[in-house]
Amino acid sequence: MKYCCFFFFLLIGLSVGAQHEILEGKFVNYDLKNGINNGSVYSITQDNIGFIYAGTSDGVFRFDGLQFEKIVNPFHSSQSLGHVTGMHFDEINNEVLIASYKGLYGYSTEKDTIRLIDPQVIHDFEKDTERKCFYYVGYNKDFNFLRIWHPTSHKVQTVRLHAHESARDVIRSKEDPDIWFLSHEGINIYNSKYDIDFRLVEPSEINKSKTNFDDLRLIGNKLYAASIGRGVLEIDVSTKKIKEFTYREKTSARFNMVRHISVLNDSLFSIATSDKGIGTLNLKTGKFSFYKHDPSDLSSISLLSGRSTFFDKQGNMWAAMAESLSVKSLSNDAFKIETQDVPLGFVKRELKARNAIYVLDSLILQGSNKSIFVYDKDGNAIENPFEMPTKDFGITKFETYSDKLIYGYSANTLYKIDLDLFKITKVLDAGNLTNEWDFNTNKIFGVIIRNDSFLLHNFNEFRWGRLTDFEPISKKMEFHEDRLIYSVKFKETIYFIGLNGLYELKDHGSITRIEGDLDSFFAENEDFYMTVSEKGLLITSLLKGAVLYQPDTKKILKINIENGARTNQLARGVVDQQGNIWLTSSAGLHVYNEIHKTVSIFDKRDNVWSNDLLPDFINRLGPSIGISVDLSLNTWKPSEMHLEEQGPDIQLISVNGENEFRQQYPASTEKISIRYSTFRYGKNDRDRYFYSINNRPWQLHNEKGMLELIALEAGDYLLQFKIIDGLGRVGYSPKYNFSIDRYWYTSWWFYGILGGILALGSYLIISRFQAAKEKTEIVKQRYEGIAKDLENQVMRSQMNPHFLFNSLNSIRYYIKSNETEIAADYLTKFSRLIRNILENSTKDKISLQEEMNTIAWYVELEKLRFNDKFDFKINIAPDILPQSIFIPPMLIQPFLENAIIHGINPKPEPSTLVLTIEHAGQLLITIMDDGIGREAAHKLKERNSLKKASLGQNITERRLELLSNNMSSNITISDLHPEQKYKGTKVVIRIPI
To answer: Which residues of 584-606 are buried (b: 16+ CB within 10 A; e: fewer)?
Structure first.
């Protein structure tokens, strides 16, 4: 049984070609925790959209690859379709036909509705594709029956069966009108020509022992019956010769418990058994093969539970099991790492791969035990190992000079490595570094080879040398701004990494720091690593991820948590030949897909040996990528991973539970719920879903399968979904355009009508003012006067509503106290005030006496509101006749209001408000209060978030500006008692008369 899967795949490949691929991969199990109720799964089918339907002993569950949904029975109080015995999809009516102990139902995939076709107890159900009809057998209280359902005419033919046992299964021959059906103990035939049925095979003909039949298939003139107890029986219809296919292993009293047969081809069956699970039967060899069950693997298929099998349109194999649904997925997104074990014959102790370089189809590998090994392109070790020059030999990094010559260096030594002679020569060591090269330390931080010279540097000094004799050819150059911890060559230009940034070496020998967006990457960062590729410089860190800097364009690509990485601890990286970026990290292997701009993550689930790859190196080894680990070098080919391929498409299923995708929704729509799926079966846990509205940046959607858009504003919307699968491949959904209507009072036509009314009113006002002007004024003066009068009128129209609003607040405040008599008096005074305001609102000017009356009524109402908290006094100079002086209406009230609300009201003690009117060449109005003062009032406004200036005061100031014309008028505000606790406020208004 160890190689049963291999033999099965081989049979599929030889017999049905593409079927070999269909059956690859492991079974994935769905059970109660995934949404299937606690019941056995008996049958499986798929509709035209792509939904998988699982028929169980507790009804039908629909599955879209992301979530299960139970199909509710509207005809039964239990809301369940009952024990489902069979399902098929009807392409004519786009219905899933469901046979159960409660009858035959039709579920419409277009309308999401269910109807009852035949309320009978049904045992089994079969589809006749050629005749476009369905057969089902069952019984009622009177007799066993065979029914034929015609979807086109919606008619049911009924045949009464004379067999005493309950009919279990049914199938029809393609060549003749005979219908075969199973009973508990025999195989029967119904001949429609003669309207009779009789026993084709008696129980006595099958080893005389009682046999239960559960499934029936017909190939040519041979019937194949699934027997519970006898395996699979082959019955020749013409000769009635019986052949038994049984498997020999008898580990228990129950064996050969075959429940269901699926025909893969004329010689290969897929079978479901109750004692061995899911397997295959080869009719030519009579051999059974079963999928191995791994008890330690929770996703493995379980034994003793097979009910039926089904192959969907995507080529996945489904298995109906006891209390679960299993699928063997067509696609396997996990890539495979090939491990090249390092032969230990070359070393005396354990080897740990530290570094590697690929030169002329040869792999040069350095181990931590001070050894170097060479492998050819097939991974075979070359016979001649290197002789190590010293006991302390070790190489930090390789530098390529030619196909046959490379250089390597450690912290204090530079080596020449000849690949023809397999010879390693020490060319620089700590001694001559100190004397001839004149470095302050004997530590080598980097070696760069360019043409026939090389650059040697430590953390703050560098100089050039000759490859011919390894003598210095330039003076020592110092660099004190930073520490040069790493160096690479990109297109003959040398770049350094320091702790504070990236530096470029100019031709004249100076080092220049590259300014710009890289500053944030290097800030508060450390432990960098840099490699070079065709695209630019790849720099990794353990704090902020990685960046790819492209010197030609100065562009920077960042790879970190923000754009899909699992962690910012990215240790080392490399760019493959396709432009993808591979990064080792503390959380698996990261791959940035150049085409789709996405990050894929691979870990132990993908045969990566560890999730923590921080100590390991990664390098390009020709067409492959290599990472060292313990005693082996692990390699894989990016070209075989198909990262550039298009990912799975996303299909929109429903909106607000309806299959109809409406383009317009009313303004009262509170929520729009869009259901979607890729119909990728097999628990694709690493698939990530995104959505975008109106082409804005993609947002990650954690609630897979259902997006709810709540409280959308009126307007047009464009919605699209995106999936990034486990390999970083990208797929999209169709774009969905819809709009939310506006409320009528926010519609353009409402604003148009309102604007027309305002325009007409403005026109009438302008016409009125134009007619009132003197005919003798020149045209220019007349229009200027009309404009000023109109603006003055607008200011006053703003003033009056403002005052009324505050007055109504006062009334509301007092009425809430439930003092009816006082409230009545309050309203009487307010009505007088309103009448006075309305009468004055049409006048440009009113007498000072009328203004005083209005003010008196207003202040009296405010005193009532604040329980006589303040006294109000009016002082008018004797030389002023209020009846003969005219001013604009409501000019003084806003300043009295400010004094009461912001000065007097916050003060805990009683206060006094004084209004003084004098004549000093112009009308002089003074308002004084002993309130908290301007500074305290301002702080109180700030604390209460009342930061807007007084509307009434601002309007009055503007009115005075218009009133003044060429005359002078102003308003001054000052503290009344600057030295006291309550400073008070003094307002002086000057009005020309």
So the answer is: bbebbbbbbbbebebbbbbbeeb
